[in-house]
């Protein structure tokens, strides 16, 4: 078993003393911590104080019921629709708090401060879990945070002071602007003891009735000294520490995350003292070398005294970070020289034992952080960037064809997995796709100048539905799928999103099926290949794996030349239908024919035109090749095989899909399921106004489906048009065609 040196020995090596320093025999706190003293038994004075005044100190803490009562009372008093704003880092402590707030029935929004060094895993935790829970979320950043870190290191030998300055200023303003009366933090009880209460305890003050007014006054001073936030803004938002009211241990936090969350992942790049921030190790290194002790020493040892952490685990958490290339690179980026071991020098702020103001903010040594750069006017809130892009000509064509049902134009595909249903895997994979593909996050707005599209980000509940088909026979499952496709299409909204819907079909011990419905505006064959490639990779890896980079959908759409309309787009087939006409129309009738070996879109269109010419009809055929690679993303390539001389819309529209099995990558954990209830080639309204023919290859055979309004159906059957086309294609089979 690998062992690590004790923290006292490591600190001695870092500070250059050459000998281990003294440590408390009970909690393990280092003798280098300012103001610490030991009795004859080697017990530190903080342990002795807690032993004597434990009952009084514990009186400051409450229970969860008290917490809920306070938060709800403030929301009711202010008439707020949101109970609280949680400061959410994506680490274990704040993730635990978020789940508990939801369990307690509170109305929550979340706020994340991205200081530029937040672990990507932590940020993914934020995005995944808030999306899973349907929580409204915002991420903020500071325009000059590197300079804030530099000033913080120069003055306090810690990056945390400046970071928390930015976090608290931004979140307080944000909560005030939204009318949210309470900010909830995930400070541990050890941090509460050190940052909130230590000054009072050293003055012999243990009564919460005396402590609370001092904390509020200190918070006003803190914000005014740093960012100049008006007192009325500060007073409108109360900061409440969740762990003041929860006695959960570190083990309890980990147990809940393991039990409740399939999405939270432990970042692997954040060092020992943080589960969200990468720059933390750089701050610890500087503080240890220049102040002579670990800046997490006090709060971590309080966790030991309170029984929330074993001493050995605390020793491991406080193990000093080495000056790794990663730490050196971070300090270089900030512009702070890497300190040599043994170069202890004082910080600009007073040491912890000599503070003159109570530590009142949710930050380590907050009272000494008042001179850190807190120019929150330079801060920016980053959600979707609001960039709006006109539709491509092909997308406009989709909307023209959709008539009065633009939101229901979703193509449905049914896949079968190898194992029974796994809801957690489906949620993880779906969320990863949303985070990775800008196209899946698109929203559409109709302006005076036409439709526009923009990236709305990831928000709201995950579009994953679970269907229970266990124990059902084939006809019953087919009926369930038919209803599910209609339901999922109805849930797609161009303006409010999302543009995709997934349904996990639970078939008991049988392999699960996954029903995908994606709007036609972003679902051409090439896009489906990419989507299914990434879905297959995620599913095979348990829902978490790096995906190939993708270029921006909106950048490509903006780059489509104005002349592209002449090459790829055509006006719609006629005026939009009225809702009354749609409601009274009968469903189109399908005529299915098999046509031998695969054929290209051009060959099928030629066969259609030839049969029409043989019958003396004007051979107008409109072709949409979904497999075309040179059309703008969102739909395939439009062309006219032969235009009617009258200039009227073509009487037949042919849509070519090719071999659907080729959508799946080699080695995919899925198999394609051919089902009329989830037919990829069918959109609502197909064939209402004109004859639509779709061509798809299944197991090496080209199948043509004819979708006809009731009137043309009789004429087509009387003239045996579908059979004539099938015979012509079979006789002229082209095995080399795609």
Automatic annotation (TrEMBL):
Signal peptide: none
Coiled-coil regions listed in the entry: none
Compositional bias of kind Low complexity: 360-384
Limits of the Condensation domain: 389-554
Protein's UniProt name: Condensation domain-containing protein
Domain of life: Bacteria
Pfam families, alphabetized: Condensation
Matching Gene3D superfamilies: Chloramphenicol acetyltransferase-like domain, HUPs
Region spans: Disordered: 1-20, 360-405, 566-586
InterPro entries in UniProt: CAT-like_dom_sf, Condensation_dom, Ni-pincer_cofactor_biosynth, Rossmann-like_a/b/a_fold
